[in-house]
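Annotated sample (chain length 358).
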Amino acid sequence: MIWIWIAFIAFVLLILALDLGVFHRKAHVVSVKEALAWSAVWLTMGLAFAVFVYFAYDSQWFGLGTVADAVDGLANDGATATEKYLTGYVVEKSLSVDNIFVIAMIFSFFAVPPLYQHRVLFWGILGALFLRGAMIGLGAKLIAEFHWVLYLFAFFLILTAIKMLFLKTEHTDPNKNIVVRLTRRLFRVTSRFHGEHFIVRAGAPASYESEIPGAPAVPDEVVEAARPGRLLLTPLALALVMVETTDVIFAVDSIPAIFAITGDPFLVFTSNVFAILGLRSLYFALAGMVKKFRYLKVSLALVLMVVGVKMLLAEWLKLVLGKHFNLYLLTVVLSILAAGVAASLLAERRRMSRLTSR
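Output written by the structure step:
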């Protein structure tokens, strides 16, 4: 089975290398049109992988589907594996939308130029893949050995859903983040951007958008005060630190959610990876519109609550609905998300109507 893991990770690294080295080799502002096109590419890729999942598990390629799922105790055939993969993909994709709100706040706080935002997200997501892989491996081992951990995950998801419904987090100050404060204490940080660089040497010319033709160089007080040749972090590096920290926090919520659906490490990891890969393009497509989706956060909280309840009642639901009960969960999740988007668009239309009628 190790070969399928090696092949999948190599495939992911290849498309990431093509993404940064070919399609986004030169820094540029990602337009909404380009972001929507890339979102369609990543979505198609994620859904197309479901076809592979069906045939791989149905024919037990590479040993897939030969071991009982730790969550429901059943060996996954093509149909059940596809249901779990798609449900996990939709849940992870929807929860990643909440991440967009926080990333937008981080970029706004650090005044990251749109020209360099894609680079921050690229390396942030690459780091997230490694971190989530480690967390998924640990979670799968815990669930395989201690099934009762699932109930802890369930209560955690329900508490997280309640927190999302009632706790306001829009005005968090990144400067108060313990990781940012520790980074500032351990490293000297420049006061201005140095193009798309995360690390520069003292004495390097600084500018806000130094790679734009004709942009004047601006002296950097922190760089000039430091010992010549000393390595310094740029504000872009601080933004990357915050993006990575944010993903770890969101992973603590989302990974228990996927383990509510399946304990199969391959399904958990692949659904997570394809959901994360599309986060960058989804950010650029939705960053300017996140405030319009006022009820989306409520929808995401309800999704977490439904998944948590499903985890608690999994045995009963399996008896009542049969082995394909994840298909019903997928339908409920999609319905909640669609209702949140529809309610948000309707509220936005009413708001615009009131403004134009004045």
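Annotation: Residues 42 and 278 are 5 Å apart (CA to CA).
Annotation: The two ends are 65 Å apart (CA to CA).
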